[in-house]
Amino acid sequence: MRMAAPENRVPVSFARIDRLRDSMRGKESLIDELIDLFAADLPKRLSAIAKAIEHDDPSALALQAHALRGGAANFGADRLDELCSILEEIGRRGPHAEASAILSQLRAESARVRDALGALRSQPAQAPPAV
Hints:
The protein is built from five helices and no strands. It is an all-alpha fold. Helix 3 (58-74) packs antiparallel against helix 4.
């Protein structure tokens, strides 16, 4: 199984968000709506994943992890995508002790992504200058 990468990488892809903005010129509020929808859905997905782990429901775990993974990919949230992929894999092969540890990482990374996206609402997503 792949191990999750360290938390020192940027939680979302500025380039991906810039491409979204470029594809919706004049409709920047749509990006904000996508961010809001993702942020509103996030607690529900995390709760459903936690319940699937708690109830040893591998099908629900795979389904919910896959759904969250799709949202993460839209914003280039690579680490969140990777953690979802691991949980999806665990769900496909059945309950596993690693799922709870991955869930803890997923919750932490979800908060990082949510905060990063919130800061990017109605702003260009230019990466900060290198120091």
